[in-house]
Design a protein that fits this description.
19% strand
């Protein structure tokens, strides 16, 4: 079954990639693109492509990584340095949580650093490098 216009809009608002949407509905990336065009949706506007996000990766009820970047960054595993983290993402075992969105990259980075400090104090964010506690 394919997503309705409303479902597709919600997925785009949640900043999901076309590949992720296709996987949910057992279809192809190309079919999702066709539906976006058919429904006359504007993915860049819905995803707010120009905004920076701060996100968390969760595994077994704990935050294992905090990051920031453009909308697609939280689901991309090809650029991960840690091989275990990369493999967990590739296998679909990570839960993604976008927790903030900013127009300014610096503000997003500052929030990311503060969250990493917080989670490190709780013994979490194991895939993040240590940050200075100033």
């Amino acid at each position: 079954m394919l997503p309705t216009k409303q479902q597709l809009m919600e997925h785009l608002l949640d900043k999901m990639t076309n590949q992720d949407i296709a996987k949910i509905y057992g279809t192809t990336f190309q079919k999702v693109q066709q539906l976006i065009k058919k429904y006359d949706l504007k993915p860049k506007e819905l995803r707010k492509d120009d905004h920076y996000i701060v996100y968390e990766h969760w595994l077994d009820g704990k935050v294992i990584y905090v990051g920031s970047g453009l909308w697609y960054r939280c689901r991309r595993y090809t650029n991960r340095r840690n091989s275990e983290h990369k493999q967990l993402m590739k296998e679909g075992k990570i839960i993604y949580n976008i927790i903030a969105e900013y127009k300014n990259e610096g503000v997003a980075r500052d929030y990311e650093v503060n969250l990493i400090k917080y989670y490190k104090q709780l013994g979490q964010a194991k895939f993040n490098k240590k940050v200075n506690y100033t």
